Amino acid sequence: MVSSRPQTRIQKRNRAAILEAALEVFSLHGFRGATLDQIAHTAGLSKPNLLYYFPSKDAVHGALLSALMDNWLEPLEALKPDGEPIGEIVAYVLRKLEMARVLPKESRLFANEIVQGAPRIMDQIEGPLRDLVDEKARIISGWAREGRIAALDPHHLIFSIWATTQHYADFDAQVRGILSPEGDSHFEQAAEFLEQMYRAALSPK
User: Fold this and answer.
1) Residue 108 and residue 170 in contact, taking contact as beta carbons nearer than 8 Å
2) Tens digit of pLDDT for each residue in 167-193?
3) DSSP-derived secondary structure for the chain
């Protein structure tokens, strides 16, 4: 393993190459299907060289998930209680959709972990993620009580946002197979649709 001393430029480059390769391999094969040999080959390094930086497959996977959870919390953290309610929620939807566009491998890595029962990040789901979701759910409930948005279950509203945005990363092949888009043009169409749908659903009756 790398010592606690500052890493050299080459060490930083190799570590980054390993994590990038691991993201590719894990997002395609899941944790169980991925091997250190595949990761090393994709990174252009030998397996012993990889083991210098990460002692096990679990260690590589853990480093990826730790960084991923930080990214995953940011869009929801940005939802502010003093903003215009529908605008705040729609902005969150669009932030999540943009993450699906620019971080599809990260989304699939997360989905693979959840499908397996989240054995490596359940403590984070039951801790920081749940705390954040509960906090934002209270804000959304407050807006509903004030009559500023429709009375919708806030937790299931958030779950629906995850489902409708991360779908474009996790089921990318299916979406592209049906739509045959030019590049990422379908994300613009999805953004228009999702904004229209959520504004209609959230508007007070």
Assistant:
1) yes
2) 999 999 999 999 999 999 999 999 999
3) ---SSPPPHHHHHHHHHHHHHHHHHHHHHHHHH--HHHHHHHHTS-HHHHHHH-SSHHHHHHHHHHHHHHHHHHHHHT--TTS-HHHHHHHHHHHHHHHHHH-HHHHHHHHHHHHTT-TTTHHHIIIIIHHHHHHHHHHHHHHHHTTSS----HHHHHHHHHHHHHHHHHTHHHHHHHH--STTHHHHHHHHHHHHHHHHHHS--
Structure tokens at 170: 């996790």
Instruction: Characterise 183 by phi-psi region: left (phi > 0), alpha (psi -120 to 50), beta (else).
Output: left
- Distance CA(93)–CA(149), nearest Å, equals 16
- Tell me the C-alpha distance between 82 and 123, whole Å: 30
Residue type present at position 148: R
Low-confidence ranges of the chain (pLDDT < 70): 1-5
Integer-rounded Cα Rg, in Å, for the chain is 20
The amino acid at 1: M
Rounded Cα distance between 64 and 119, Å, is 14
pTM for this prediction: 0.86
The amino acid sitting at 116 is Q
Nearest to 193 by CA among 179, 205, 183: 179
Asked if 71 and 134 touch (Cβ cutoff 8 Å), the reply is no
What the chain holds in terms of domains, given with CATH numbers, is: 1-55 (1.10.10.60), 61-202 (1.10.357.10)
